[in-house]
Amino acid sequence: MSNQIAILIAVFLFPGGLFALALGLGLKGADRRVAARLQGRVGPPLAQPFFDLVKLSFKTSMVPTTANETVFFGAPVVGAVSMLLAVALVPIAGVYTPPTLLGNLLVLLYLLMVPGVALMIAGSASSSPYGALGFTREMMIMLAYEGPIVLVVAAVALHTGALQGGVVTFSLTEIVAYQRANGAFLFDPVMWPAIAAFALFFPANLGIVPFDIPEAETEILEGPLLEYSGPALGLFKVMSALKAVVVLGLGIALFAPFGPDGILGLVTWLVEILVLMLLGVTAIRLSSGRMRIDQAFGFFLKWPLMLAAASLVAVVAA
């Protein structure tokens, strides 16, 4: 019973649920505010993503007459629930250790694929030609960036297992514990190509410029999300906010689980999350233009895949 209560708390309260949603929306607010200031604009208030979500919750969700209503409404629910579970799998060094019943790093990888699949389903269920085009683009970009992240995770798992005298470990808890005892992989040269590959992965997974191709507003009018409104669109916003916390938290757990125990450790983690968001999302979004889908596909099959493979080879050869 105590394990079940711990899981419910982790999923719905902390570090998932309300905490993760508030953090994710806050990160998006900071991203928009900082971006506006760097462009010489006043920008929206930090709480604007919260206001947007409340506004959507009071609006009516319109369904296209030719859409599959069950699938249309099911896609955002599945996407949001998957990220609600995923955020409870991400450890916070010195503060939170995921319950073993929730799963390990492999489960987290599977859950990270669900939002992309949910967007594809949403695009196909909406019966919109823009949604269908967004479906195709989302599928192609997923095929491109999933390969590098699998190799990155494999490199970290093999490296941790080898350093512990074993073969491989897919437990994020063990990976974090080893780094806290022996030093972060951020300072291990063997891991540097994997870190670079992950740095290229997370903007694409979060769907920001230059990898926001499936939802390009100026080309396909939000693509899969074009026909969504009201609470259904709000669930996609929730999914996006939670996914930002999951992906950024995963990067910290894999390579830089710094910080003391207790409340200071949580503050350190929050600062790391904010820095990664502003440097890895806001800075990239402001300094680059959108790629074409063929350019993004070729880019991921070349640089991130090559870097992740190099790190994996270095781990095996060490």
The helix/strand class is mainly alpha
Largest pleated sheet: none
The total strand number stands at 0
The end-to-end span amounts to: 44 Å
State the helicity in percent bands: over 70%
Shape: globular
Number of domains: 1
Uncertain regions: pLDDT < 50 for 5+ in a row? none
Overall mean pLDDT stands at: 84
GO cellular component, one term: plasma membrane
Protein name: Membrane bound hydrogenase subunit mbhM
InterPro entries: ComplexI_Subunit1, NADH_UbQ_OxRdtase_su1/FPO, NADH_UbQ_OxRdtase_su1_CS
Transmembrane segments: 6-27, 71-96, 102-122, 143-170, 190-211, 232-256, 262-284, 296-317
Task: Explain the overall architecture.
- It is a single chain.
- This protein is mainly α.
- The chain has one domain.
- The chain contains twelve helices and no strands.
- The protein has helices at residues 2-12, 17-38, 48-57, 69-87, 105-125, 129-163, 172-182, 192-206, 217-220, 230-255, 263-287, 293-317.
- The model has no long low-confidence stretch (mean pLDDT 84).
Keywords for this structure?
single chain, 318 residues, mainly alpha, 0% strand, globular
Summarize the topology:
Layout: H1 2-12, H2 17-38, H3 48-57, H4 69-87, H5 105-125, H6 129-163, H7 172-182, H8 192-206, H9 217-220, H10 230-255, H11 263-287, H12 293-317
Helix pairs in contact: 2-10, 2-11, 3-10, 4-5, 4-10, 5-6, 6-8, 6-12, 8-10, 8-12, 10-11
Compact summary:
The protein is mostly helical and 318 residues long. The protein has helices at 2-12, 17-38, 48-57, 69-87, 105-125, 129-163, 172-182, 192-206, 217-220, 230-255, 263-287, 293-317. Helix 5 runs antiparallel to helix 6 (129-163).
